Amino acid sequence: MASTVPLFSSAKPRAFLSHVKPSHPPSISLRPRRCEISTIRASIASRPVVGAPDDLVASILSKVKGTDGGVLLTKDGHQEVADVALQLEKYCVDEPVKCPLIFGEWDVAYCSRPTSPGGGYRSAFGRLVFKTNEMVQAVEAPDIVRNKVSFSIFGFVDGEVSLKGKLNVLDDKWIQVIFEPPELKIGSLGFQYGGESEVKLQITYIDEKIRLGKGSKGSLFVFLRQGY
To answer: In its keyword annotation, does this UniProt entry include tRNA processing (predicted)?
Structure first.
């Protein structure tokens, strides 16, 4: 495990996400303020959203359900997820980084690379010690991102690793997030470690229910909005 642990990253693990020198990112957060969420939901409800056919959305969710974020999938299973994601990309809005649907709390339902969300905690050895309970990414207006992986150590002691970052928009589809050093909590103890980290992510599809992302190293993410 590196000195820092990438959460939802596709590059080298460093404080929860991949490392790169910042260009221009937007932000994502884990616990958006209630007033912001209400405003976001009202905005979503007030504008029509054209999404993909329901069967495509249902298909990709059925393929990642019960796979421990993709860890339990075979090579063929990963390819099936990638094939459906490619079809969903055809229905992505023109400028997904400007879509208000990005805001909210999202569960990380799948990643094509097990260690991208959670770094060493999600490696083959790490999963023997740390049982993942939840992987969440929250995006708060206007530009805050919060990532969190909660786990239990051998099923007895609860802990979590969290990151707070600032999001910058690179173009119509790509965002960059610069994260502060990660914070580790085990039981009542908590501390920060490592340094800043950076991740770049392309939004390839988004609707009220799911969001798809592709990291700069090719990792595919499927996010499911909490509450669905």
So the answer is: no
Tell me the C-alpha distance between 222 and 111, whole Å: 7
Residue ranges for the chain with pLDDT beneath 50: 1-6, 10-48
Cβ count near 64 (within 10 Å): 24
**CB 216, CB 18: distance < 8 Å:** yes
Contact criterion met (CB below 8 Å) for 132 and 122: yes
Distances (CA, A) of 201 to 30, 75, 172: 17, 23, 12
Alpha-carbon dihedral 17, 122, 82, 167, rounded to 10 degrees: -20
Q: Between helices 75-89 and 54-64, what is the axis angle to 10°?
A: 160
Give tens-digit pLDDT for 1-31.
Answer: 333 444 555 444 333 333 333 344 333 333 3
Whole-angstrom Cα distance, residue 220 to residue 226? 19
Tell me, letter by letter, the H, E, C secondary structure of 59-88: HHHHHHCCCCCCCCCCHHHHHHHHHHHHHH
- For the record, the structure tokens of 121 come out as 């905690």
Question: Does residue 67 contact residue 77 with C-beta atoms inside 8 Å?
Answer: yes
C-alpha to C-alpha distance for 67 and 74, rounded to whole angstroms: 10
Residue 70 φ/ψ, nearest 5 degrees: 105, -10
Rounded to 5 degrees, what angle do the CA atoms 215, 220, 223 make? 105
pTM for this entry: 0.76
